Amino acid sequence: MLFRRRSDQPVMFHRCEHGDRLWHDLAQWYATDLGQLTREQEQQQLDTELVNLFGYHLLHLGSPADATMLRASRVNHRMRTRLDADSRAADRDERGLCLQPTALPFTPDSLDVVVLAHILEFSSDPHTVLREVERSLIPEGHVVILGFNPVSLWGLARLFRGWKRRVPWCGHFLTPTRLKDWLALLGFEIVRQRRYCYRPPWQHPRLLQRLAFLERLGRRLWPIFGGGYLLVARKR
User: Fold this and answer.
1) What's the whole-model pTM score?
2) DSSP string, 87-138
């Protein structure tokens, strides 16, 4: 049996005060010029990694959450989640699970791949989220994590913008090193790590376009300072 009864505990978030609107606001941010740039780079990273991960069941948690993000996956059964309690009319035609990341409604050892798209930096209990992922994954199953890097220009922007309680800057950004330590304690082996978004987090399309050369330069000269990162880990 794949599903189990879910908990009724509410989902809480670290510094953001948007409540049920958090994921709606994050989706709106992804519609901005900077958000679209971020989404394109995250899509490239996912396309590269998901094509090499196999199995029967894939779960996607977080935002962005449209079906395009999983287009490269070869897993037939792909489940996407809707974490916003107030579903808008535009979303009603799309299928999605309503669940809580701190209490996944799956039996142990039932999922092959879990994609966590910015869940951990907006959760009040990221440890529990990772424990639930570990419990739900089969042995040798994979978790793919997208996160914002605090050791970057994006992290610096968060220091100045986070107090405004605006997403994504109000989230609790986690360093890849810290996240790898948590995963190691849960028995995961780090398979791969990628970084991206070396341009400053500015909402100026022409300026972002002119600074496109920083992506190639950043990967070569200061790879650890990418604004976003992707981690792939395997459950031992």
Assistant:
1) 0.87
2) --GGGTTS--B--BTTB--B-TT-EEEEEEES-GGG-S-HHHHHHHHHHHEE
